[in-house]
Amino acid sequence: MLRIAAMVVTAIAIAYSTVVFQTITRNRILTPSVMGLDSMYEVVQTFIYFFAGSLSVWVLNKYLNFGAAIAVMVLFALILYRFLFRADKHPIYLLLLIGMILGTLLGSFVTFLQVLIDPVDYLSLQNRLFGNFMNVKKDLLYISVAILFIAFIYGYRIMDKLDVMSLGRENAMNLGIPYDRMVMNILILSSVLIATSTALVGPITFFGLIVANLAYQYLVTYRHSILILGASLIGIVALVGGQFLVEHIFELKTTLSVIINFIGGIYFIYLLLKESRAAG
Questions:
Q1: What is the Cα 2 distance to its own chain's centre?
Q2: Separation of alpha carbons 31 and 146, rounded Å
Q3: CB contact at 8 A, 154 and 189
Q4: In the UniProt record, does the keyword Calcium occur (predicted)?
């Protein structure tokens, strides 16, 4: 029951953050994870293990670890997004390129540090760097639910504004939407949600890309209330069904995040090729 609750929280958080993020970027390929947020989670955990060790209070105290991961990821996201989306004039493929370069750079840096870590600490670290629903902490799940509830209160209040913002910057401003302020608020909201889900169960890079685009494909509507609900339901079914396959078909020889990232990587390439053909 605890694992199912964690899957529901994760699916809703990632689906919501991805849909609203793609609304303000006006692109269905970009997601917070693709822009390097998951890589920053790996950096935080690797830094903790490298400088403090697996027996430090930052590892043993789940609240400190959880809070540190969320705080650093949100700070990184705000700095990154504030720079990239300033003036709203950067080509979307430049943003995608920057995000992938940052993710690769951070990943290489993490790999370098992991080579120097004590082997025992390294094994402990690996358990945190892959999405895993088998060892969800009940207390952290309650905190995640509380964060999700607070975020959704605000998200519900701006749902109509999101529908208008999907028309673009100029049209939204002409209709009375404080566009720049809303973009920053939505970036904060998206960052908090994706950081919370990642800190709870670990990184699942392409999950948001899959559920959001499937929702766009099968729910042909501009209303965010329907899109977010649809993406959340698709995400819940995918996580629950995927975990069933991991436990009963693959007999726990792999993790759910590995399967999702494999399928998501293929889907990501498909979307890139599709966008390229459409542009050409």
A1: 21
A2: 23
A3: yes
A4: no
pLDDT tier for residue 211 given thresholds of 50, 70 and 90: very high
Q: How far apart are CA 66 and CA 195, in angstroms?
A: 10
Give the SS3 label for residue 53. Answer: coil
Q: Give the Cα separation of 15 and 224 in Å (integer).
A: 11
Helix (H) or strand (E) holding 93: helix 92-116
Q: CA 65 to CA 178: how far, in whole Å?
A: 36
* Helix/strand/coil for 117: coil
Q: What is the fold, at CATH topology level, of the domain defined by 1-275?
A: ABC transporter involved in vitamin B12 uptake, BtuC (1.10.3470)
**100 CB-near residues (< 8 Å, 6+ apart):** 34, 36
- State pTM to two decimals: 0.84
Give the separation between CA 210 and CA 261, rounded to whole angstroms: 10
Mean pLDDT, the chain, rounded, equals 82
Both tokens assigned to 24: 């303000």
- Is residue 57 scored above 60 in pLDDT? yes
Q: Which residues make Cβ contacts (< 8 Å) with residue 200, sequence separation at least 6?
A: 6, 9, 10, 66, 136, 140, 141, 144
Closest of 223, 204, 244 to residue 31, by C-alpha: 204
Of 123-132, 160-169, 198-207, which range is least confident? 123-132
**Element housing 162 (H / E):** helix 159-165
Domain boundaries, the chain: 1-275
pLDDT grade, residue 91 (50/70/90)?
A: low
